[in-house]
Amino acid sequence: MVPLREFLALTDEQRDIQRLAREFAATELAPHAATWDRDAHFERALVPRLGELGFLGMLVPEDYDGMALTAVSYLLVLEEIAAADASTAVMLSVHNSLPSQMLLTQGTEAQRQRFLRPMARGELLGAFALSEPDAGSDASAVRTQATRDGDSYVLNGTKSWVTQGNSAGVILAMARTDTPDARRGGKGISAFIVTPDLPGFSVGKKEDKMGLRASPTVQLVFDNMRVPDDHLLGEPGQGLVYALQSLEHGRLGISAQAVGIGRAALAHAVQYAAERQQFGKAIREFEAIQFKLADMATRVTQARAVLYVAAAAKDRGESITQLSSIAKLTASEMAMWVTTQAIQVFGGYGYVKDYPVERLFRDAKVTEIYEGTSEIQRLVIARELYAD
Ligand code: CAA
Q1: Are strands 152-163 and 145-149 parallel, antiparallel or unpaired?
Q2: Residue 156's beta-bridge partner residues?
Q3: CA angle at residue 83 from 77 to 88, to 5 degrees?
Q4: 140 CA closest ligand 1 atom index
Q5: In 10 A of CB 139, how many CB atoms?
Q6: Residue 387's pLDDT is what?
Q7: Domain 4-121 classification at class level
Q8: What distance in angstroms lies between residue 244's CA and the mean position of ligand 1's atoms?
Q9: Sequence ranges of the domains in the chain
């Protein structure tokens, strides 16, 4: 599966966690990935299993039953998982990067004990609800309204594109706490810890997607949903800032997912080019195929290099606003291009479901869309060029 030479100088600990993830992915994910994709089946039994391995608390301190991994180690795990099953990779990326990070950085001690600890143990899956039908790239256009009433908030609205929103035990949801007659833009948005047992919570439409079919994506409907005020996260009016902060981490997770997809497509193409005979010899003997494989390997390596440069900067405590967008833009566009080339190497066999490259191509597309489209990544990168 790994046709590329490892260029990272990994520590023994990083090599161990990478091996653990690779073995788990090869034995417990890869054999099922095509069936789960075909049936749009979310394998719920994976949640406790991933918890057992520590993969649902990778960035959480040991005090809250997490693994306290560095960003580099965390992304090595995601890359291995994505190379086998990109749907499981997004489950891990969303859970570890978004709700877990928001609770860790902004939660009170009581909120961390109640929600973060069971999340890290794999007892509760986390989700993140920012987007709405009319608030996608323009995240500050959130309309879901939270109105204070006694010692609780009453939430009304619809959140969309919520990864695993129908399976999560904890959802970090952004809603407006400003009033309709005094709108404050992004500053009027707060973050709430939502649990599916709250009265007024329901799961709406489940999307029938092109790719990542084993990862459910749903709408969530809040109909006079009463949320106790101790479920408010951090300061009122700071919800959008917390969400964008955690998305900075999330974008590294999606980069690792895209690198895993690209790496898998390259590995399948290399293997197929050695086996497929045309004109009396293996097609890898033709320069047209060699150059294609060389370009694919070059782009996967470039994206991987940028990803781990960004991760190392994160581990040094540096700002990665621009780097995480550069990593996501590079990796997602690489994954789309490399999976397209892989299909070309397979020819007609790449266009049908008998081989995995068709699924990898479909899975790659969303990495250019979610957690900020490629256009939004370019906007963030450009803004940082002329930031003070
Ligand atoms: N870290 C910390 N704070 C940040 C930040 C960051 N990375 N980015 C922005 N902020 C702060 C800003 O400083 C600002 O705070 P102040 O008002 O105090 O100065 C506040 O957040 C608002 O930021 P902007 O003024 O830059 O906001 P904007 O309205 O101009 O929008 C944007 C900027 C880049 C377009 C942003 O809205 C954005 O990233 N949009 C894309 C949203 C997105 O990625 N959605 C994906 C949803 S999740 C998903 O895909 C589903 C899933 O489950 C996987």
Answers
A1: antiparallel
A2: 145
A3: 70
A4: 29
A5: 19
A6: 83
A7: mainly alpha
A8: 4
A9: 4-121, 126-238, 241-385
Of the residues 244, 322, 366, which should be mutated to test ligand 1's pocket, given the most ligand atoms within 8 Å of the CB? 244
371 is a catalytic site residue: yes
- Arithmetic mean of pLDDT, 22-46: 98
* Cα 5 to chain centroid, rounded: 25
Give the pairing type, strands 201-206 and 126-129: unpaired
244-295 pLDDT, tens digit per residue, is 999 999 999 999 999 999 999 999 999 999 999 999 999 999 999 999 999 9
CATH code for the domain defined by 241-385: 1.20.140.10
Answer yes or no: is pLDDT of 3 > 80.
no
Q: How many CB atoms lie within 10 A of CB 276?
A: 16
The pLDDT tens digits of the residues spanning 101-157 come to 999 999 999 999 999 999 999 999 999 999 999 999 999 999 999 999 999 999 999
Which of 241, 332, 384 to mutate to test ligand 1, by most ligand atoms within 8 A of the CB atom?
241
Nearest Cα residue to 104 out of 58, 146, 142, 139: 58
Q: Is the CB of 242 under 6 A from ligand 1?
A: no
Find the catalytic residue in 123, 358, 371, 375: 371
- Domain 126-238: which topology? Butyryl-CoA Dehydrogenase, subunit A; domain 2 (2.40.110)
